[in-house]
Design brief:
Length: 321
């Protein structure tokens, strides 16, 4: 295991879980973030340092930080944006990370991409993720870094913007109009993703490999929405009715959500991603190849949304251990 790890985007949802995993292994961690308030969640850890920086633009700071650590984890990503924004975060940043690794004499890098990343994908998100992987793979072939890529499906866990969003919407709406309702997913628990990253940092045999990080269950989007409402106790555990929108209405809904104030819930590019199922290809190793038995959403989901009795929660939790 590397003795010091630099986590780019380490104050986010996956990053906080990863910090905990690395702390258990006695690793010194530096978390880079633009938002100090978000970093408060990891400041209490004994071997954690937080650096405030925007490494998407500050190459000098990125180079200095990379050189000071044994390994780097890149968690930086965006779900919403235009072509230029996706390229800046998903392609240009990996290019800068590769250059910083090369200038430091080569570094270990675990890069978290996305399931469905492909150069001919239907969305800007998927295509930019694939292009970012291509940049890093070329750098690895040139000897600039030791690369492992993880491609997770949609990630769930306590405080996520996935199950909790679906549950919250059902508390506000009498019916849920849903675009892309038939799209299939293999949701993966955030703790399993964090553990996978930690194992990849530890095992040199993972260098040069790409892993699909997926849960063991297949869910359609409409099923996920219904389950979230049920687990959150909406309508006495029945959840709200889900109305699948046809493609044209779905695009209009996504356009309207893009223009709404506040955080974007869905964009037209997100909807484009739903044109293909977000499930493992079967052509690449998965979490079991890393010795991880991924937790099923049907077991962990009720724990996250908290409607079971304390004893039921404990029984379900033990099944994940």
């Amino acid at each position: 295991m590397s003795q010091s790890v630099l986590i780019l985007g380490g104050a986010g949802f996956v990053g906080c879980q990863l910090v905990e995993q690395l702390q258990r292994r006695g690793v010194w961690v530096t978390v880079v973030t633009r938002h100090f308030e978000a970093a408060r969640r990891v400041l209490h850890q004994p071997r954690v340092r937080v650096v405030m920086a925007d490494i998407t633009d500050d190459f000098s700071t990125l180079t200095t930080l990379v050189a000071a650590h044994d390994a780097v984890v890149n968690l930086v990503a965006i779900l919403h944006g235009d072509q230029a924004q996706f390229e800046h975060v998903h392609i240009e940043l990996p290019r800068r990370i590769a250059l910083a690794c090369a200038q430091a004499g080569g570094r270990r890098l675990v890069h978290v991409s996305a399931l469905g990343a492909t150069a001919d994908g239907p969305s800007m998100y998927q295509r930019s993720k694939a292009d970012g992987e291509a940049v890093l793979n070329q750098a690895a072939r040139d000897g600039a870094l030791g690369l492992t890529v993880l491609r997770p499906s949609v990630i769930f866990g306590t405080g996520d913007r996935f199950l909790n969003l679906f549950a919250q919407l059902q508390k506000l709406l009498p019916i849920v109009p849903l675009a892309g309702a038939a799209a299939r997913f293999q949701p993966v628990w955030v703790r399993d993703v964090a553990q996978a990253i930690a194992i990849c940092l530890q095992e040199r045999a993972t260098i040069g490999r790409t892993y699909e990080a997926c849960g063991p269950e297949f869910w359609r989007l409409r099923e996920l929405v219904r389950a979230a409402g049920q687990w959150a106790g909406v309508r006495g555990g029945r959840g709200r009715p889900v109305f699948a929108l046809p493609q044209t209405l779905g695009r209009l809904q996504a356009l309207a959500l893009e223009w709404m104030p506040g955080p974007t819930l869905m964009s037209r590019d997100n909807l484009a991603s739903l044109a293909v199922d977000n499930v493992a290809s079967g052509l690449l190793p998965g979490l079991t190849a890393l010795g991880i038995a991924p937790a099923p959403l049907s077991t962990v989901g009720p724990l996250i949304l908290g409607r079971n009795s304390p004893q039921a929660r404990m029984d379900a939790y033990r099944k994940t251990e």
